[in-house]
C-alpha cells in the first residue's frame, strides 16, 4: 500500500507540471537477476513521464516491449564484438539483425558503439572503435536510417588535464584515434558523450574538494583564471573541460552530452560520501538544473543533455558496494530514497537566475518532442493540496 501511495504521489507531481521539454534521460542497466520485467519497467517510466532511456545492449525483449511507446531508446554495441564490426559486411549484418527489426515502432534514436573504449583495460579494442563507428553509420544510412546518430561514451579519464576547464586536453596516447573520432562526429553532427561522476573526484580527495560543490549545493565554486567563467558545480566544469579539449583538437560545433552521472546511496567504509542523503541531494539538485534547461558556463544557451545513472540497483555488478547502489529504485520498484521530486515539481524553474531563455514554468521528465497539456496553475494547486489531504488521511487513519 505504501509503495502504491508513493508512486501515485510522484505521478501526480509529474502530471501537474508536464511541459518542460528538457534534456533528461535515465540509464536502464540490467546487470542483475531480480529486476522487474520490461513490461513493468515501461509502466514505471511512463508513470514518471520519463521518455528517454539508454540500455547497454540491444535486448530484444526490451526493444519489443517498448514498441509503439513514447520511449526514446539509445542502444549499445557491446565492447566484446567491436573487433567484428570493423568489417563493413558484418556491421551491415549487425544493423540488419539488431536494429532494423524494431524500426520504426521502437524509437531507437542513437547507437553507442562500446562503452569507455578509449580508456578500457583491453587496449586492443581502440583500433576497432572508429572503423566500427563508421561502418555502423554507413549501414544505417544505406538502409535509410541516417537520422540515428552513432557515437561512443567516454570516461573523464580520456583527459590529460581537466582543471581548470579551459586547460582541458585529451591524453596524448589517444590523440590520433580521438582526432579520427572527432572528425566523424563533426561530419555526421553526432554528440560527444561523457560518463561524468563528481562522486569519484570527491571520494578520492574529500579534504580538498568541497562537498557542496560536487552536490550542486550553494557554494563559492571556482573561477577559471583564463576565461573568468564561474563554476558553481563540478559536473558543468567537467563538461566544459571536454568542450575545451575538443576545441584544442581543431573541431567546432560538437555538442557534449552526459551519458552517465549519478551518486551511490551505499558504499564500503572507504567510499567517502556514499549515502542516501548525498545521493538524494545530488540527484535532486541535478533535476532542478534540468528543469531550468541550463547550459554550462561555456555554452549557457545550449541545454546540457544528461542521462542519470541509474534506474535500478543492480545486484550482480562487480566491484565495491557503491557499484550496486546507484539506482533510484530497488528491484521491487520501491524508491531507494526520496529524491524530493514532488517538491521540485512545485518549484518554478523561472526563478533560477541562470536558467536559459527557453526555460518553462512547468515540469516533467519528458523529451522535447513530448508536449502534455497542463491545467491552469490555480487548479493545479487545488488538486495538489486535495491529494496531500487524502494522502495524509490514508497514512494516519
Automatic annotation (TrEMBL):
It comes from the Eukaryota. GO terms for cellular component: plasma membrane. GO terms for biological process: carbohydrate metabolic process. Its EC number is 3.2.1.39. It catalyses: Hydrolysis of (1->3)-beta-D-glucosidic linkages in (1->3)-beta-D-glucans. Residues 1-23 form the signal peptide. Keywords: Glycosidase, Hydrolase, Signal. One of its GO terms (molecular function) is glucan endo-1,3-beta-D-glucosidase activity. SUPFAM superfamilies: (Trans)glycosidases (SSF51445). Belongs to the glycosyl hydrolase 17 family. This is glucan endo-1,3-beta-D-glucosidase. The lineage of its organism: Eukaryota, Viridiplantae, Streptophyta, Embryophyta, Tracheophyta.
Amino acid at each position: 500500500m505504501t509503495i502504491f501511495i508513493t508512486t501515485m504521489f510522484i505521478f501526480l507531481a509529474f502530471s501537474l507540471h508536464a511541459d518542460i521539454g528538457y534534456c533528461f534521460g535515465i540509464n536502464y542497466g540490467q546487470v542483475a537477476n531480480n529486476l522487474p520485467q520490461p513490461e513493468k519497467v515501461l509502466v514505471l517510466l511512463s508513470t514518471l513521464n520519463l521518455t528517454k532511456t539508454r540500455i547497454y545492449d540491444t535486448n530484444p525483449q526490451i526493444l519489443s516491449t517498448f514498441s509503439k511507446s513514447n520511449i526514446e531508446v539509445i542502444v549499445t554495441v557491446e565492447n566484446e564484438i567491436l573487433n567484428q564490426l570493423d568489417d563493413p559486411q558484418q556491421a551491415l549484418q549487425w544493423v540488419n539483425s539488431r536494429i532494423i527489426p524494431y524500426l520504426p515502432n521502437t524509437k531507437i534514436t542513437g547507437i553507442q558503439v562500446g562503452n569507455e573504449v578509449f580508456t578500457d583495460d583491453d587496449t586492443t579494442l581502440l583500433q576497432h572503435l572508429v572503423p566500427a563507428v563508421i561502418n555502423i553509420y554507413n549501414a544505417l544510412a544505406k538502409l535509410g536510417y541516417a537520422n540515428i546518430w552513432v557515437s561512443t561514451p567516454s570516461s573523464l579519464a580520456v583527459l590529460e588535464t581537466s582543471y581548470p576547464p579551459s586547460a582541458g586536453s585529451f591524453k596524448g596516447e589517444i590523440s590520433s584515434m580521438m582526432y579520427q573520432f572527432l572528425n566523424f562526429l563533426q561530419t555526421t553532427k553526432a554528440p560527444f558523450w561523457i560518463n561524468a561522476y563528481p562522486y569519484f573526484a570527491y571520494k578520492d580527495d574529500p579534504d580538498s574538494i568541497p562537498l557542496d560543490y560536487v552536490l550542486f549545493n550553494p557554494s563559492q565554486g571556482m573561477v577559471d583564471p583564463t576565461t573568468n567563467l564561474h563554476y558553481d558545480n563540478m559536473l558543468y566544469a567537467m563538461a566544459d573541460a571536454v568542450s575545451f579539449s575538443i576545441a584544442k583538437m581543431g573541431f567546432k560545433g560538437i555538442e557534449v552530452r552526459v551519458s552517465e552521472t549519478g551518486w551511490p546511496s551505499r558504499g564500503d567504509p572507504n567510499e567517502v560520501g556514499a549515502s542516501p542523503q548525498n545521493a538524494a541531494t545530488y540527484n535532486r539538485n541535478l533535476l532542478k538544473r534540468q528543469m531550468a534547461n541550463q547550459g554550462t558556463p561555456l555554452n549557457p544557451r545550449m541545454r546540457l543533455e544528461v542521462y542519470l545513472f541509474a534506474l535500478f540497483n543492480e545486484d550482480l555488478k562487480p566491484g565495491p558496494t557503491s557499484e550496486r547502489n546507484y539506482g533510484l529504485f530497488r528491484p521491487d520498484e520501491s524508491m531507494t530514497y526520496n529524491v524530493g521530486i514532488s517538491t521540485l515539481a512545485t518549484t518554478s524553474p523561472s526563478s533560477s537566475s541562470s536558467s536559459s531563455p527557453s526555460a518553462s514554468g512547468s515540469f516533467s521528465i519528458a523529451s522535447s518532442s513530448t508536449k502534455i497539456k497542463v491545467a491552469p496553475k490555480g487548479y493545479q494547486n487545488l488538486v495538489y493540496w486535495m491529494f496531500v489531504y487524502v494522502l495524509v488521511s490514508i497514512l494516519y487513519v
